[in-house]
């Protein structure tokens, strides 16, 4: 074995062992004790400024932010007047994520407990109509059985429990966590493992948050390279969009910070490699996927696209290479550097962006376009998953971009017998050249697309909850990345001077912890539980002393 090969073996084994240890309780053993000790709650006296500025919008504080929600639920449990509502809320969540076979029994119990006026736990804040509907429908156990009840429950809690929460010690605890969340973060908090891939402005490394043991991917953007190649706008757009979306079908940004030389985006680590790799490099004698597998990935991609489009974001760069697998074999969209956000009131945009062979006709013709360009790229991606070649080029063909463009604009797509008729139909629907006739995002969702015959076997509720077992599970001992020597080095950048304006931009970029993922990390790794302890008589420990 040569030195390069040896380097990869050593780096892989460190990476695989760090990765493997981070399931559940073992994460604690991987922590750096010194860094973990720096995660501690401040004295409440030091939080006065946070108290008045903290995000206290009900939906954000009590529902969307995982730590805020936990503390709010603990408050509900502690108050006789809200205990039932708190329990109903937890039971609804448990019902939604439980296996279908267990749902009937759970639903029956919940109806008896909360929906019968004779029960001591009866929830009188539920409107009669909602109660009647649940009682009628619960034997069919639909996934959204309690949807209306949950909305009424949250409205009730906002009106009746939010103020009480805000004057309780649970709110003070929330303030303490928000203070901790707001502390600056830098490279000291992370340990890099091997390089996973190469981007346009720098490398992406596997890394570990030292204080908690959680693994991430760290995408580094070299400051000088960014400046020389005018990458500032793209970098800030990518950061802003990643921080804004929270979907299990899109990589999540957890931290943004800077080092002397780089801007760093720390995000969900996707250990399973990209779809392109799995299509062509795993079994070279049989490239592409069978239809079941292609359907599963396509369904998850649709959920990611739907989320982006509901947040007014056009992705523009969907292709197998940008769809990454996690340990379990679920996929997420990554690389949002070409995405664009439509400002309020504007429904179309312009601009040439994407990858040759994938871009929609209207974009290639320099017309105005909207979300529908992403469904054309979805059509190209699905076609390629099945056919193991793009719809607009012959396999192995060297062809000019102009010719590919001409084909996209003019040529019909042909389908080999490998395509089932449902699959061919949906590809044709997605690859429709006229954007208004293309399958896609309508009335703010993808319902029409999801109900195509091609997807008739997909239970969308379970898929969206991440509960459908993936058709392929990556090997936990395998590293789905190129050998280190093959990732490719960068040339050094010369003649770039960093001035004050650049530094202002870097500071703006380095916004630190992203609240929701940071809170998830604290909960997942057990740190939240370790910090959230109460003193005697339910006081905030070590800090409510006079
Ligand atoms: P660029 O926008 O510069 O093309 P990418 O976001 O595509 O950069 O990242 C470059 C490469 O790094 C990807 O092709 C992939 O191999 C790897 N990579 C990127 N993000 C992740 C991630 N979240 N998990 C694992 N590997 C990743
Ligand atoms: Mg890329
Ligand atoms: Mg990019």
From TrEMBL:
Per UniProt, the keywords (alphabetical) are: ATP-binding, Kinase, Nucleotide-binding, Phosphoprotein, Serine/threonine-protein kinase, Transferase
> Enzyme group, top EC level?
transferase
The GO annotation for biological process reads: cone photoresponse recovery; regulation of signal transduction; signal transduction
Which residue range or ranges hold the AGC-kinase C-terminal domain? 456-521
- Domain Protein kinase stretches: 190-455
Q: Which GO terms describe its cellular component?
A: cytoplasm
The UniProt record lists the EC number as 2.7.11.-
Q: Which family does it belong to?
A: Belongs to the protein kinase superfamily. AGC Ser/Thr protein kinase family. GPRK subfamily.
This chain belongs to which protein, by name?
G protein-coupled receptor kinase
Write down the species: Cynoglossus semilaevis (Tongue sole)
């Amino acid at each position: 074995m040569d030195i390069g090969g040896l380097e990869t073996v050593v780096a892989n084994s460190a990476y695989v062992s760090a990765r493997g240890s981070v399931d559940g309780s073992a994460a604690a053993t991987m922590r750096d004790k010194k860094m973990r000790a720096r995660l501690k709650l401040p004295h409440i006296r030091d939080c006065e400024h946070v108290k008045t500025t903290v995000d206290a919008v009900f939906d954000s504080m009590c529902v969307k932010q995982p730590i805020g929600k936990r503390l709010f639920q603990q408050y509900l449990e502690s108050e006789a007047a809200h205990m039932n509502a708190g329990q109903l809320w937890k039971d609804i969540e448990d019902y939604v994520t439980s296996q279908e076979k267990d749902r009937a029994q759970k639903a029956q119990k919940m109806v008896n407990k909360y929906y019968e006026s004779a029960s001591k736990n009866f929830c009188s804040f539920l409107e009669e109509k909602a109660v009647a509907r649940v009682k009628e429908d619960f034997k069919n156990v639909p996934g959204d059985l309690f949807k209306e009840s949950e909305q009424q429950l949250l409205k009730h809690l906002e009106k009746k429990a939010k103020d009480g929460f805000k004057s309780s010690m649970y709110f003070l605890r929330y303030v303490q966590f928000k203070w901790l969340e707001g502390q600056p973060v830098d490279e000291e908090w992370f340990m890099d493992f091997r390089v996973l891939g190469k981007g346009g402005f720098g490398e992406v490394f596997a890394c570990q948050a030292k204080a908690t043991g959680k693994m991430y991917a760290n995408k580094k953007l070299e400051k000088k390279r960014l400046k020389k190649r005018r990458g500032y706008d793209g970098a800030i757009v990518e950061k802003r969009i990643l921080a804004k979306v929270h979907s299990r079908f899109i990589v999540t940004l957890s931290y943004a910070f800077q080092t002397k030389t780089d801007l760093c985006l720390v995000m969900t680590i996707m250990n399973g490699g990209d779809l392109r790799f799995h299509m062509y490099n795993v079994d070279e004698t049989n490239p592409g996927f069978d239809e079941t597998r292609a359907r599963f990935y396509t369904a998850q991609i649709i959920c990611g696209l739907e989320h982006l489009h509901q947040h007014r974001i056009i992705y523009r760069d969907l292709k197998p290479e940008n769809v990454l697998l996690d340990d379990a074999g679920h996929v997420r969209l990554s690389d949002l550097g070409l995405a664009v956000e439509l400002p309020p009131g504007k429904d179309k945009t312009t601009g040439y962006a994407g990858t040759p062979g994938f871009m929609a006709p209207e974009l290639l013709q320099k017309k105005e376009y909207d979300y529908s360009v992403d469904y054309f790229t979805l059509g190209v991606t699905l076609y390629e998953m099945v056919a193991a070649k793009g719809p607009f080029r012959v396999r192995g063909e060297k062809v000019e971009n102009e010719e590919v463009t001409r084909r996209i604009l003019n040529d019909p797509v042909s389908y080999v017998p490998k395509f089932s008729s449902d699959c061919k139909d949906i590809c044709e629907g997605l690859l429709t050249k006229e954007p208004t006739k293309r399958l896609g995002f309508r009335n703010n969702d993808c319902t029409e697309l999801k109900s195509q015959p091609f997807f008739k076997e997909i239970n969308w509720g379970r898929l969206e909850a991440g509960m459908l077992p993936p058709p392929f599970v990556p090997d936990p001992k395998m590293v789905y990345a190129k050998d280190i020597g093959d990732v490719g080095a960068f040339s050094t950048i010369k003649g770039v001077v960093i001035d004050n304006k650049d530094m202002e931009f870097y500071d703006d970029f380095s916004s630190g912890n992203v609240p929701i993922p940071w809170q998830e990390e604290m909960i997942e790794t057990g740190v939240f539980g370790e910090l959230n302890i109460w003193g005697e008589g339910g006081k905030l420990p070590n800090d409510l002393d006079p």
